Amino acid sequence: MMNYATLKQNSGSRYAGVRRSPLAVMRYLEKDHFQLMAHHIHLNHMVKEAIAGKHRRIIITMPPQHGKSTFASYALPVWYLSEFPDRRIILTSYEAEFAASWGAKVRRALKENYHVFKKSLDKDTDKFFTLAGHQGYMQCVGVGGAVTGKSADLFIIDDPVKNAEQAMSSTYRQKVWDWYLSTALTRLSAEGILIVVMTRWHNDDLAGRLLREASDEGEPFLEIRLPALAEENDPLGRAPDEPLAPELFSKERLLAIKKALGTMWWNSLYGTRPTSSETQIIRRGWWQRYTTPPAFEYVFQSWDTALKDNQLNDYSCCTTWGVGRLGLYLIDVFMDRLQYPELREAIKNRASRFNPSVILVEDKGSGTSVAQELRIDSRLPIIPWAVEGGDKVLRLNLVSSVWESGRVFAPEGDQFDALIDEMAEFPFVDHDDRTDSVSQGASFYRQKLMMQTNDESVAVERLTRGSRRSSNQNGFL
Fold first, then answer.
1. Which phi and psi (to 5°) does residue 328 adopt?
2. What is the value of pTM for the model shown?
3. Strand ordering across the sheet containing 137-142
4. What phi, psi does 74 have (nearest 5°)?
5. CA distance 265 to 161
6. Is residue 146 within 8 Å of 183, Cβ to Cβ?
7. In what order do the strands lie in the sheet with 316-323?
8. How many of the other CB atoms lie within 10 Å of CB of 67?
9. Within its chain, how far is the Cα of 359 from the centroid?
């Protein structure tokens, strides 16, 4: 009869293959959900080389939903702690709770698979746990969070940017950079390994700055760049335009996403090569022109109101739109400097002229007041419209794909040519009131359009907006 010691030895031998690499751990833990792909093998090889001492700084940039976090924030920590139980891990992400969710998965994997990894836990929480009888631990914090008194032999930064609004904020990007310099770097042990894994959002995001610093004779980083569609000299040996994970995202599906996102967001999120966000966001050639309007499904108006009503401030502007089978048709542009009582009357007059189904009024400054009053005092279909995203450049970028896909039409005429010129030169213009009104109208159209399409389109919409909110927050459905 086989004794306990023999059973224990056989159990260790049986699972030795699982512990040989992060990829083997990933295959074991994910089981039925796992599909082995070429980029998994490449990542596994490069990370194991780093652990062996060949590379101390790695940047991994990949598209969303291709398994980068499952590999780097789940399988890698489980393998690392099981193989090097006296080493320490710090894992960070855009917020503490998200980082802790990966800590919870690592904890659960070690506890539920003791027969595989042979490690027990002390001080057992999602944000911090230690290995019983060893010096190793894992701490999970958000970017900007404190890790005072802790050191890391393996420091993982997984998606330090949550959404487009953060990515387009120079203040937030500087906050991430300051945290990296003051906290992340100072927590690395003498031979510590730093791995940054992220979706690219902006040419000045953390990966962008680190690569620029490296090119300026800073500490060298190994860049593992895996775009959704292959380029020349692909590190995986793919032919140009071959998908990174065809089992998950076919070329046809990726091209549909590209069309929905527009060039700027595609280049960043899926091409892993961000381009400038302030260079002709809406090109003149993206506008379609028409002479005879089609039959419209409905008409709506978009009001951008001046913050104050004196002559030194901006104009109030209303653009009127028709939604047709082929897209969004600009019908009329109204712009004037208006005192508050005049603004109320102008909204009524424009509504009387075009009979819109919806009147959007930016929920800010004088717009908030006039929208509240008109909803009480009139039967106009007023919707106070919450400003989407951060600054004006971001808001226009978020809807630029509507133009790029050929869905926006304008009539012939000088006033419409002036608007097209203003938008082509934005943000380097003296007055951008028409652009603000147009951007708001396009945001309404895009949200409503996405609510009427399939789940994939909705997913793309939420991805670019980076929002956890319902698309119906403004109440137009």
1. -110, 125
2. 0.68
3. 121-122, 128-131, 137-142, 88-93, 152-158, 188-198, 57-61, 222-225
4. -125, -70
5. 14
6. yes
7. 288-290, 408-411, 328-336, 316-323, 298-304, 358-362, 382-385
8. 21
9. 30
Task: Encode pLDDT of 357-410 as tens digits.
Answer: 999 998 887 888 899 999 998 999 999 988 665 678 888 888 888 998 899 999
Predicted local confidence at residue 1, as pLDDT: 37
Q: Which residue type sits at 30?
A: E
Dist. CA 63–CA 201, nearest whole Å: 10
How does pLDDT run across 113-132, given as a tens digit for each residue? 999 999 999 888 899 999 99
CA 369 – CA 359 distance, rounded (Å): 15
R_g over Cα of the chain: 27
Task: Please tell me the distance from the alpha carbon of residue 60 to that of residue 69, in angstroms, as a whole number.
Answer: 10
d(CA 68, CA 102): 13
Enter the tokens of residue 77: 């920590």
8 Å CB contact between 228 and 270? yes
pLDDT for residue 460 is more than 90:
no
Between CA 423 and CA 161 the distance in angstroms is 28
Q: Is the pLDDT of residue 282 over 80?
A: yes
Within 8 A by CB and 6+ apart from 49, the residues are 55
| Residues in a beta bridge with 229 | 243
Residue 381 C-beta-side C-alpha neighbours within 13 Å: 17
Lookup: tokens for 81? 């702690």
**pLDDT tier for residue 313 given thresholds of 50, 70 and 90:** low
